[in-house]
Structure formats: C-alpha cells, structure tokens
Design a protein that fits this description.
Length: 138
C-alpha cells in the first residue's frame, strides 16, 4: 500500500500521479479513449485562473507505461492543437501512409541492428578493401 502511494506520488512514467488525478477530477473533461486504452482530457482556458495559457490544455493518461509513440495519429493531431475536433467527434480515418503503432525496442534485445553492426547476429562481414586509412602528414 505504501509502495503504491509513493509510486503514485513520484513516478509519472508508471501511470498517472496523485496530483494529476486530483487535477483531472477537479477541472479535467474527458474527451475520449483510443484503442490502446490511453485516455485524453482537456481543460478549457480560464484567463482569470492562469493568464499564461492562451488556449485549452490537453493531456493524455497512458494505459500502463508512459510511451508517447502509443498515441495514434488522429489523437496526436488533437493533442498538438493541429485540429480542434477530437477523433471521437470527427469520425477520423487514418491515411494509408500512416503506420500502426510499433513499440520502441531501443535498448532491448529486439532492437534494430543494421547489417555490419558489432551487436548484430552472426559475424561482422570482412572489410572489402575500399577503405584507405588516414595517416597524419601524408
């Protein structure tokens, strides 16, 4: 119980923090949810409360670990104020060139290793002889 409370207070990457939940409860308006379980919120601008914000604040609470690449293209546009209409109200359809989400594997055993990398499977290919080393003063 104490561990969960401390995690909620101090680790934003494991989910919503305690103060974020309080803010959502008090002033946030739920806009929608995506196929990954991420939930999107907005808070309309209130110039009397905070004149520094000229437009509404928008944020996402991730389902599990905070991974920004899990935001689908339609929600990404709404989050970055590219469009004012959220995908739930717009009947958004992804463009053919927009790819589905793939997790970021950097730093894991499944990370991309290009051919010739010392970390790639198998042996490194032999040098082809097209490289001439630089020597100082030559």
């Amino acid at each position: 119980m104490l561990k969960r409370l401390l995690l909620d207070c101090f680790t934003w990457w494991n989910g919503t923090t305690f103060m974020s939940r309080v803010t959502l409860w008090r002033r946030g308006e739920k806009v929608g949810e995506d196929e990954f379980g991420n939930v999107y919120y907005r808070m309309p601008n209130d110039p009397k409360r905070n004149p520094a914000f000229s437009r509404e604040r928008r944020w996402v609470t991730y389902n599990g670990y905070a991974e920004a690449s899990t935001i689908p293209p339609g929600w990404w546009g709404w989050m970055h104020h590219t469009t004012d209409i959220p995908p739930t109200e717009d009947n958004y359809q992804p463009k053919p060139w927009q790819k589905p989400h793939r997790p970021n594997m950097t730093g894991t055993a499944r990370a991309y290793r290009p051919k010739g990398s010392t970390l790639a499977e198998g042996r490194r290919p032999a040098a082809t002889g097209d490289y001439k080393a630089w020597t100082p003063g030559a």
